[in-house]
Amino acid sequence: MAWIDTLFHRMVQTGASDLHLTSSTVPMFRLDGDITPVDGCPAITPEQMLNILFEIAPEENKREYQKVFDTDFAYELPDVGRFRANFFRDQRGPGGVFRLIPTKVPSAETLGLPKPVLDLCDLPKGLVLVTGPTGSGKSTTLASMIDHINATRTDHVITIEDPIEFVHGSKKCLINQREVRLHTEGFKRALRAALREDPDIVLVGELRDLETIEIAIETAETGHLVFGTLHTTTAHSAVDRMIDQFPAERQSQVRTMLASSLKGVVAQTLLKRITGGRVAALETLIVNAGMAANIREGKTHQIPSMMQMNGKIGCKLLNDALMEHVLSGAVEANEAFRKCTNKEDFLRKCQQAQIQCTLAQDEHATEPLINTPVGANPGAPAPRGPLPNPAAHPPAPTPVPIPGSRIPSAGQAPIGRR
Predict the structure, then answer these.
(1) Three state DSSP letters for the chain
(2) Which positions ≥6 away from 142 have C-beta within 8 Å?
(3) CATH number for the segment(s) 108-316
(4) Which of 90, 201, 248, 344 is the most exposed place for a label (fewest CB within 10 A)?
(5) CB under 8 Å to 364, separation ≥6 — which residues?
(6) CA 31, 377, 360 angle in degrees (round to 5)?
(7) CA 99/CA 82 separation, integer angstroms
(8) Domain covering 1-102+371-418 in this structure, CATH number
């Protein structure tokens, strides 16, 4: 067993979503949104870190890291889970971040996806975007939507991901999952090839560049249902982001194409629950004739007001979604205030509902970094799942050179994958 596998076991036991490894620093978990040191684990030197990372990396990713100091891949630990891995290098030396991918795709009911979002899964064609900041759960939401399609439709689904995260078994659909660099050269090449592979539905893990965006729009226009992700905080800003990728002389044409192909945008953000864990707030844009006309005419600044007036078709602004969680008692008003984009509007909603929001008194308030071991913060909510019993689950072994150890001494050549 690789040394890092012990940390992965503890990560699952404590309910952490991410593991952060930085040279000369104690490993950190992200637990309910907070960065917390791993109790009982020492700091790792740069030399030890490189060998810890390379112990689980495929050979191709080792070569890529040694060349450009960045690489991504998925690592699977049987009976524990899959992990999306990213290796990097900073001023301290090698480092890595690992995101836990559940072995079971969460259902739409488990995530609480509303009916307007599920209705997007029933479309015969068009473009559907899921947006949000990094780490907001876009991949989980998309995986749940694909799982819903897999259970309710009889279609051919092609996914293009970097790397493959959730693994879908074929239920009613035939699903082919392709990983960038492992199964295809890149997103745009795989997307072009998908048109010759008889798909009904195509999922693009990330719309990264102009050409990929252009092919995705064209694919949606030619009678396919296309899902993709963008890194924007609101639904209407996703429309602007796609248009702004193109040169000025082409933007009028792209607005026309997007107006006819875009069917919906789901923008989400994660919030800490009062009882522990996290919950997603979803801003939903359902494109109707009026929305499409505004996109075509370049009046995207009017989309938020139109969303407010079109709640009956499923549109919902982020502040309304946040307020629902506050009123239900799932999320504190201060937590929702931190995540909202229109703070004045959210404060007015709090005043109307007679809810106190103390952070509103200080617009510059920031969320402190918790600098205590997992489970050692007396004011924090209980983590999801029991913490490991020290007697039953001893802490990760100290990475020091001892006879027979797989952790090398400083200056020793990296070990190979076993």
Answers:
(1) CCHHHHHHHHHHHHCCCEEEEECCECCEEEECCEEEECCCCCCECHHHHHHHHHCCCCHHHHHHHHHHCCEEEEEEECCCEEEEEEEEEECCEEEEEEEEECCCCCCHHHHCCCHHHHHHCCCCCEEEEEECCCCCCHHHHHHHHHHHHHHHCCCEEEEEECCCCCCCCCCCCEEEEEEECCCECCHHHHHHHHCCCCCCEEEECCCCCHHHHHHHHHHHHCCCEEEEEECCCCHHHHHHHHHHCCCHHHHHHHHHHHHHHEEEEEEEEEEECCCCCEEEEEEEEECCHHHHHHHHCCCHHHHHHHHHHCHHHCCECHHHHHHHHHHCCCCCHHHHHHHCCCHHHHHHHHHHCCCCCHHHHCCCCCCCCCCCCCCCCCCCCCCCCCCCCCCCCCCCCCCCCCCCCCCCCCCCCCCCCC
(2) 130, 203, 227, 229
(3) 3.40.50.300
(4) 248
(5) none
(6) 80
(7) 8
(8) 3.30.450.90
Domain boundaries, the chain: 1-102+371-418, 108-316
Q: What is the dihedral of CA 398, 399, 403, 404, to 10 degrees?
A: 100
Buried b (16+ CB within 10 A) or exposed e, 186-225: ebbebbeebeeeebbbbbbbbbbebebbbbbbbbbbeebb
Can you read off the two tokens belonging to residue 281? 């707030």
Say whether pLDDT at 372 is over 80. Answer: no
- Which of 238-242, 347-351, 384-388 is predicted least confidently? 384-388
Q: For residue 393, what pLDDT band results from cuts at 50, 70 and 90?
A: very low
Contact residues for 305 (Cβ-Cβ < 8 A; gap 6+): none
Question: Between residues 282 and 364, which one has the greater pLDDT?
Answer: 282
